[in-house]
Amino acid sequence: MKRSRSSTMQFIDTIRKTFVPIHREGYPFIAIFAVVTLVVGYFSSFLLWVGALLTVWCIYFFRDPERVTPVDDKLVISPADGVVSAVGPAAPPAELGLGGVEMTRISVFMNVFSCHVNRSPVRGRITYIEHRPGKFLNADLDKASSENERNGLVIDSPNGVVAAVQIAGLVARRIVCWTEAGSDIAAGERFGLIRFGSRVDVYLPEGATPRVAVGQIAVGGETVLAEFGGQASAPVVRVS
């Protein structure tokens, strides 16, 4: 009996590890895709297959995998999956109240196949959140940081003020942020999501040294974008 239960638990654990969880924000969209597929599929088998592929893509888009985040206050963790599209000095958005002095900005661009769940780059307290309407230019363009619709978080971290800005893109028309100002947040903790193709900018204070290059692939909640104070110590890890 004990062996049977053990085998069952191992089987369930294997299933959980094989199938990536889907974020609840995606359920309505997946349902819409599935219903439309059934309707158009009634009239055309070709459209049925097209709809089925789009439904599978929609499910894949809203995946929400578990990530193992380094626990070290010296490290700045990628807030999103995607390609590092910019590394260098830039003034943060004016609405965040951080002044006009340039900070180190690291941008991660997400395409329509990236996981779009966003995670905090550092540990700290969220002191300010501001949503700003704007354009829907290609999020890979540099001017998207100042002209596109965006939502910014200001985090008071152990190493100073860090900002994470969710930026809508050419296809993305909805920014979701479910955290609140005044709450504490851990590095790698989920705080929002963008649909469907977008970018996240991280603004870092003096003392942060970038550890990524433009073109590098970043994994949200795991990849180290930068570090404070020189050589980082060996990190402890946690599953978030």
Q: Notable features of this structure?
A:
about 240 residues; alpha+beta; three-stranded antiparallel β-sheet; 16 strands; about 25% helix; about 35% strand; disordered C terminus
Strand order within the widest sheet? Answer: 10-6-7-8-12-4-3-14
Oligomerization state of this entry? single chain
Low-confidence stretches: 232-240
Average pLDDT score: 81
Number of strands: 16
Strand content: 35-45%
- Total DSSP helices: 4
**Main sheet summary:** 8 strands, antiparallel
Q: Which structural class is indicated by helix and strand composition?
A: alpha+beta
Shape: elongated
Q: What proportion of the residues is helical, as a percent range? A: 10-25%
Radius of gyration from the alpha-carbon trace, in angstroms: 20 Å
Task: Give the N-terminus to C-terminus distance in angstroms.
Answer: 33 Å
Give me the strand/helix succession. Answer: HHHEEEEEEHEEEEEEEEEE
Characterize the structure shown:
The chain has four helices and 16 strands. The protein is an alpha+beta fold and 240 residues long. The strands form four sheets. An eight-stranded antiparallel beta sheet has the order 10-6-7-8-12-4-3-14, with no helix packed on it. A three-stranded antiparallel beta sheet has the order 2-15-13, with no helix packed on it. The radius of gyration is 20 Å and the shape is elongated. 39% of the residues are buried.
Quick summary of this structure?
The protein has 240 residues and is an alpha+beta fold.
How do the helices and strands line up, and which of them pair or pack?
Blueprint: H1 2-18, H2 27-43, H3 45-61, E1 68-71, E2 75-77, E3 82-90, E4 103-110, E5 117-119, E6 124-132, H4 144-147, E7 150-157, E8 160-168, E9 174-177, E10 184-185, E11 190-195, E12 198-204, E13 208-210, E14 217-218, E15 224-228, E16 236-239
Helix pairs in contact: 2-3
